[in-house]
Amino acid sequence: MAHNLQTFKDIRFYLGKELAGIYPGPEITAMTNIIIRSVTGITKGHQLYLTDQKVTVEQASLIDRICRELKTGKPIQYILGETIFYECRIKLNSSTLIPRPETEELVDLVIRENNGYIGNIIDFATGSGCIAIAVASNLPGTTVTGTDISEDALIIARENALINNVGIIWLKDDILTPDTGAMEKAGIIVSNPPYVRNSEKKMMNKNVLGFEPHSALFVADSDPLLYYRGILNKAAKLLNPNGRIYFEINEMLGEAMFLLLESFGYSEIKIISDINGKERMIKGIKYAV
């Protein structure tokens, strides 16, 4: 089929036909734009009027391969090995979660509320490093530390920092141990730890369950706030007086998270909804006693 893909118009028709019934129409359009940009380097804006732009045989063959992989349910970000997150180019592999739009909203909240901040920031459970890198890129007066238990994730995170030309301190760390190791105190802590309860697996798409790292997603129903509590225990030693903490949260656990932050002595706790009206973020301030 690849030899019939000669122009952008051909590619759009081909992907639309081949992926119909597997993905919704708007998602196919979005993926097509991403695929053309990734393979040819031509951005979405330019694609719109370059419908007769020719592609090489090699490019057509690559697009055909990408299409076959998409049919298996494999996420496009893993097929291409990268994504764009808060205008940063982030490489991904099977050890790292695909960054979500709500995580971009968390980053945006941190950046908006701390414009001009000078000091240290810690990002726990950094994964691909997307939060740490986006924050460091947009708050130039900061020193950012990203931690993760997965050495494979930290390898990708280091690579992503180089790609985006930001200096980050990367540390291997287990959230569930109280030891803070080489970490410096910080004025801001941010994290998107595992928060999907095992019982919620049945509601998730097969492309998430089949390809994304379960250890970065899921937590036991018996203790769904396990990782947050671990971070808050570390924050008790690491967060400066009047420091701020920001979490991405399970939309069903906002009230429980509010009570947890309260129990650790945080004030001005606020649950924040994402663009879809779901309670997906929480923040608090640790005032000096």
Which features does this protein show?
seven-stranded mixed beta sheet, 40% helix, alpha/beta, 289 residues, Rossmann fold, 2 domains, two-stranded antiparallel sheet, elongated
Task: Walk me through what this model shows.
It is a single chain. The chain is an alpha/beta fold and 289 residues long. It has 2 domains: 2-72, no CATH class; 97-286, Vaccinia Virus protein VP39 (Rossmann fold, 3-Layer(aba) Sandwich), CATH 3.40.50.150. It contains 11 helices and 11 strands. The strands form 3 sheets. Strands 5-4-3-6-9-11-10 form a 7-stranded mixed β-sheet, with helices on both faces.
Quick summary of this structure?
This protein has helices spanning 8-19, 25-40, 44-47, 57-71, 76-80, 101-113, 130-138, 151-163, 206-211, 226-238, 254-263; strands at residues 82-85, 88-91, 119-124, 142-148, 168-172, 186-191, 196-197, 218-219, 239-248, 267-273, 279-286. It is an alpha/beta fold. It contains eleven helices and eleven strands.
CATH class of the largest domain: Alpha Beta
Quaternary status: single chain
CATH homologous superfamily assignment of the largest domain: Vaccinia Virus protein VP39
Largest sheet: 7 strands, mixed
For the record, the CATH architecture of the largest domain stands as 3-Layer(aba) Sandwich
Shape: elongated
Rg: 21 Å
Q: Write down the CATH topology of the largest domain.
A: Rossmann fold
The sequence of SSEs as H and E is HHHHHEEHEHEHEEEHEHEHEE
Helices, by number, come to: 11
Strand content: 15-25%
Task: Determine the mean pLDDT.
Answer: 91
The number of domains: 2
Please report the total strand number as a whole number.
11
Strand order of the largest sheet: 5-4-3-6-9-11-10
Structural class: alpha/beta
- Helix content range of the residues, please? 40-55%
- Gap between N and C termini: 69 Å
Sequence stretches where pLDDT stays below 50 over 5 or more residues: none
